[in-house]
Amino acid sequence: MNFELSEDQQLLRETFARYLNEHSSMSRVRAAQPSGFDPALWSGLAELGAFSLRVPEDAGGVGLGLLDAAVFMEEVGRTLASGPIAETLVAARLLATLAPNAMLDRVLSGEAVVSIAFHNIADEPVQWVAGGAVADAVIARDGDRVVLIQIPASVRKTEANLASTPIAELRLADGERSVLSKDESGRKAFAQAIEEWKLLISAALAGLSREAIRLASAYACERSAFGQPIGTYQAISHPLADLSTDADGGKFLTWKAIRDIADSKAGAGAEISLAAWWNIDTAGRAVAQALHTFGGYGLTTEYDIHLYNLRAKAWPLILGDPARLLEEAGRRLYSGEQVALPDVGAVTIDFDLGAEARELAKEVHAFFEKTLTPELRAKAHYSFDGHDAGVHRKLAEAGLLFPSWPKEWGGRQAPPYAMNALHQAWEEVGWSSHAISTTGLVGTMIRLFGSDELKSEVLTKIVSGEVVCSLGYSEPSCGSDVFAAQTRATRDGEGWRIDGSKMFTSGANIADYVLMLTRTNPDVPKHKGLTMFIVPLKSPGVSIQPVFTFQDERTNITYYDGVRVKDSYRLGPVDGGTKVMAGALEMEHGGGFSKSMRHMVHAAEELCREIQYRGRPLIEDSAAQVRLARSTAHVLLSEVIAYRAVWAATQRQPNVGYGPMAKLFSSEKFLKDSADLLNLTAPYSLSKRTGPAGFLNQCYRHAQGTTIYGGTSEVHRSMIAERGLGLPRSRA
């Protein structure tokens, strides 16, 4: 897996970033109005080889890949560069592919502008064209032919429009033309150009979104209201955190589409449509929220944010209604619509988990195929209720309980990518991993902070699969503010006495130990007087009462009345629990629910094939395809955001909230999509019968808790805002 651009790509980005910072500054963007075209900028870009990026070397170009062009377009979007750049990039490649001529030389040198018409002029002789007001020529489909239409200077007229871009409504059927191609290869090349444009505009909008969010975040740090920066208010910071995650996801979904085209993946065509739809939608939401952050000043022309607001709409809408892209994705996913995919060239980024990951996933499938009897499969449940002690011990014997652990502690030092594949296999099998996850977290904390006695008495049993552990963080009065814990640990001879209660101690009814956060010093600020312990749940004074949820799972409230714990069962120093707890929370924050989401979408697809709607399977209905496509987009986005978190941790990249992004995005979309797919397949989805209907029913209930446990979405939004956007702390 690789999310890092090559040295050449980084140099390309830096080169164009420096140039555009100077020559597409906001003062230059404003100066280009009302035409929306900057001839000097255009000439400079040509000198840097911008328009030759995608032109093959034998036609006088640089011959770079589509990812390289996408990197360039991110900078174009960030700086709102004036002119039809995406359209000229694909037009130049088309000219080079179909009929290299003098016009191509003029385009590459910046002397001429050539744009592209998106619709067949045999059907739509009059069309809006990006850059039409400054274009010397337009490439278009005319029936079965691909033609180059000359645009006389007399019809190139600037028209007032939303964002002062050089769009124009042109009567293309009347223009002087030359035929570039009249065979299938030419029509294919033209279709490929349209798909390439979608990816280039997606990249530009991702760059635009990120910059709008950056401007808003900087302003939120400077502007004060009621005596403090407005960025401290969650009503300001949390929407920006959401949109920062959305913008990152859009960029990486664009990259993934390019990668999957290179790898000839079956869903690559749909990914193009989904990437374009998502980035268009995200840009619209990002600029609206960014402008709102500026308040009334955002409405004035003195502030630059309005320029981003208008360009976010002007650039993509030349294609038409973005909702059509979801319809297109639906047809490509579920109606077998074929698409001519562009030749993307070399792609350096990679989303593949690797051969070791595939082998581990295969081993997991084989283990469960051999181990799970019909009775065990009937017992399976996504919560602690699905735990089976016998299977747990067999997993330990097979080295599949904690594969990422060191070999001396029963693991096999499986890398993070392999563990990601293991978790996906686990989801596909449908066997609960809750007890394994919490026990593994507790075991890791013991390995890092535990005494030798604790390792000998508890960790060895964890390794052998003899015991399971639960987590004792939340309390009835504290909720997500775990550091406000009031459960007390007081000195009792050489050990400790614990008194208090914990809420949502899931799995405590089957667990042997609980990882517990306690207050050991009530006279200091709440973050400083805490200590962590491993507490045996079979100890005198422990009582466990069930709390049932509508998710068909049991959690617990646990009470501790004079429970004695040895000092050797303490993790870390006395009153040093904050650091220990932070490590435990960081492990929880790095996850996500993309695997559950993918399983849910597959169940919805299966049910839509079974349900008859107006005499045919529901999955053939275009409205149903749109909703399934939207959920698929959310799955893909959740995956790439989570992959970035895993990659960044593996590469020891700076922690700027990547883990919280993965958890936040996936849990929120899981909640939204579970409700929508329940609606789509109603009333069948109301049933709890075995099969896809019952599973969708379960997903709806399961999803309700995902935005709460492991830290609420609000907690994760604050973490993203502070770490990723540099906003001030929004909570005491």
Automatic annotation (TrEMBL):
Gene3D superfamilies: Acyl-CoA dehydrogenase/oxidase, N-terminal domain (1.10.540.10), Butyryl-CoA Dehydrogenase, subunit A, domain 2 (2.40.110.10), Butyryl-CoA Dehydrogenase, subunit A, domain 3 (1.20.140.10)
Residue span, Acyl-CoA oxidase/dehydrogenase middle domain: 471-547
SUPFAM superfamilies attached to this UniProt entry: Acyl-CoA dehydrogenase C-terminal domain-like, Acyl-CoA dehydrogenase NM domain-like
The protein's required cofactors: FAD
Family annotation (Pfam families): Acyl-CoA_dh_1, Acyl-CoA_dh_M, Acyl-CoA_dh_N
InterPro entries, sorted: Acyl-CoA_Oxase/DH_mid-dom (IPR006091), Acyl-CoA_Oxase/DH_mid-dom_sf (IPR046373), AcylCo_DH-like_C (IPR036250), AcylCo_DH/oxidase_C (IPR009075), AcylCoA_DH/ox_N (IPR013786), AcylCoA_DH/ox_N_sf (IPR037069), AcylCoA_DH/oxidase_NM_dom_sf (IPR009100), Mycobact_Acyl-CoA_DH (IPR052161)
Record keywords: FAD, Flavoprotein, Oxidoreductase
Span of domain Acyl-CoA dehydrogenase/oxidase C-terminal: 185-332, 577-724
Protein name (record): Acyl-CoA dehydrogenase family protein
Source species of the chain: Steroidobacter flavus
Lineage: Bacteria, Pseudomonadati, Pseudomonadota, Gammaproteobacteria, Steroidobacterales
